[in-house]
Amino acid sequence: MMIRPNRVKQKLMAGETVWSSSVRLPEPGLCELLGYAGWDFVLLDGEHGAVDASSLEGLVIGCYAGNTTPIVRVLRPNDPEAVMHALDLGAQGVLIPHCRTVSDAHALISAGMFPPRGTRGFGPGRAAMWGRVSGPDYLKAANDEVVLLALIEDPEGVENVEAIAAAGLDGLWVGTGDLALGYGVGGERDHPKVQQAAERILAACLKNNVACGYPARSVEDARKAAAQGYRLIGFAGAEQYVMTESRKFLTEVERS
User: Fold this and answer.
1) Residue 198 in contact with residue 176, Cβ under 8 Å?
2) Does 121 score more than 70 pLDDT?
3) Of the listed 48, 98, 106, 191, which one is catalytic?
4) Tens-digit pLDDT profile for residues 220-252
5) Which of the four pLDDT bands, split at 50, 70 and 90, describes residue 146?
6) What is the pLDDT of residues 163-192, one digit of tens each?
7) Looking at domain 7-255, which CATH architecture does it have?
């Protein structure tokens, strides 16, 4: 018996583009729903959302029910316990925020990989199907199945992105919102400074054969990103869909 295959990892290694949405509220049904909708992975947001250690388990199970890959956005970039815990509970990847230096990237690799590639502690639960997969078999496969991603969302990270892209991660994600704040143009995600930073991040990823992620805000935005070479493309989250469609309906009703 082998561990659950990581289809996102397989697609990235094959040079394909993967699509994601996110969940901030600790509601497993939202993850299940997004899986049924067809998203390759659901980002479980432990940085900006209400996702914590106690609710993570249910969200992972919700992703499995919807046949989508669970990836956790942890609260801090250098928290090896949070990375280990997410993976032990069955998450198939981790995204760290605010990756500013190559040391941050190396710390993620260390936390997410078992020796000799890293220093992750051994204690898998759901990830090893609660013992159905033997310890030796789990160790043989785990390092090859995990997806490790980092957000580049600070000017310092952009300045170091060439070294970060060469560190060995599976992907880097452009954080347009925080980049706008960092460059003093908060809220202006399309500002030239932000877009120039995004271009530099993408170029570093392409040079090092690392997938690059982008937060699309429309179909047109997503198509443009894919054409430019981004292969990790995210779009909003379950909660935002509810708000958008609710307001659209109610606005139209009020106008009638």
Assistant:
1) yes
2) yes
3) 48
4) 999 999 999 999 999 999 999 999 999 999 999
5) very high
6) 999 999 999 999 999 999 999 999 999 999
7) Alpha-Beta Barrel (3.20)
Q: Annotate 114-128 with DSSP letters as a single string.
A: -TTT--PPP--SGGG
SS (H, E, C) 7-64: HHHHHHHCCCCEEEEEECCCCHHHHHHHHHHCCCEEEEECCCCCCCHHHHHHHHHHHH
Span 74-102, mean pLDDT?
A: 95
CA dist 129 and 195 (Å) reads 43
For residue 142, what are its two tokens? 């785990």
Q: What pTM was computed for the model?
A: 0.95
Tokens 């443009």, located at residue: 224
Cite the DSSP H helix spans in 128-169: 135-145, 155-159, 161-165
d(CA 41, CA 19): 7
Q: Where are the domains of the chain?
A: 7-255
- CA-to-CA separations, 55 to 19, 20, 43, 127, 148, in angstroms, rounded: 24, 20, 14, 16, 21
C-alpha 81/C-alpha 19 separation (Å) is 27
Among 212, 183, 215, residue whose Cα is nearest residue 196: 183
Residue 85 bears catalytic tag: no
Residue by residue, DSSP assigns 78-116 as T-HHHHHHHHHTT--EEEES---SHHHHHHHHHHHS-TT
